[in-house]
Amino acid sequence: MSVRPFVEGDQVLLVDRKQRRYLVALQPGLEFHSHTGVISHDSILGSAEGSVLRSSRGSNFTVIRPTLAEYVLKMPRGAQVIYPKDLGPLLMLADVFPGARIIESGVGSGALSMTLLRAGAEVVGHEIREDFAARARSNVETMLGSDALARYDVRLQDAYEGLEGKDYDRVVLDIPEPWRVVPHAATALRAGGIVVVYTPSIVQVTKLQSALDQHGFGFTETLEVLNRTWHVDGDAVRPDHRMVAHTAFLTHARLLEP
Length: 258
Prior knowledge:
Elements: E1 11-15, E2 21-25, E3 31-34, E4 37-40, H1 41-44, E5 52-54, E6 60-64, H2 68-74, H3 84-93, E7 101-105, H4 111-118, E8 122-127, H5 130-144, E9 152-156, E10 168-173, H6 182-188, E11 189-199, H7 202-214, E12 217-223, E13 230-233, E14 236-239, E15 249-255
Parallel strand pairs: 7-8, 7-10, 8-9, 10-11
Antiparallel strand pairs: 1-2, 1-6, 3-4, 5-6, 11-15, 12-15, 13-14
Helix pairs in contact: 4-5
């Protein structure tokens, strides 16, 4: 069995007995502090994934590498992120493939960017805030490595004023007034290209749908994703008392008349 020990700079999750997760970037000489005690980074370095370490107060922590979904929930952020329950469906609705050329507007903290890049896309991001753009680049590099930055070009540009470039395969929007970008998307996309839009409010959806109808898009569909987990303990099973219900609407359409 191949073992890849933790090394300096690795992102790890420390998981306590109540399944609480703490994201830590490993550095020699540093320590992780919580109300259940202290764990030195040196005790983690060189250990294998799945190792169980004991804190200074006797609490056990399991050490694992974060998945993309786990990193999105714990990573540094400057803006609200799209959560994993929507990122997966969004990836399928956009039909992202290796080498796909995608414009993303509203990169925020980079959660969607990382998802697109992990699927092999080439992403041009439009962002109006320099601090958000810097945070997104940093998060992408931390989770996916510096090689991913070669396929990630974040530009300080207002998508309401236009989208740079032509013949893109996909346009993905997470901005307050996406209907204002629809005319620009119609000129930036190739024929048959797909636009996917993330909107928290149904009022946004109605305005978006009207703009899509007016600018050559068809096969439009809007959906939302509700995520309910289950408690399973032997033969005793039931839905969990809490669930992640509405976060946003996902609307997708194809450009039929460029």
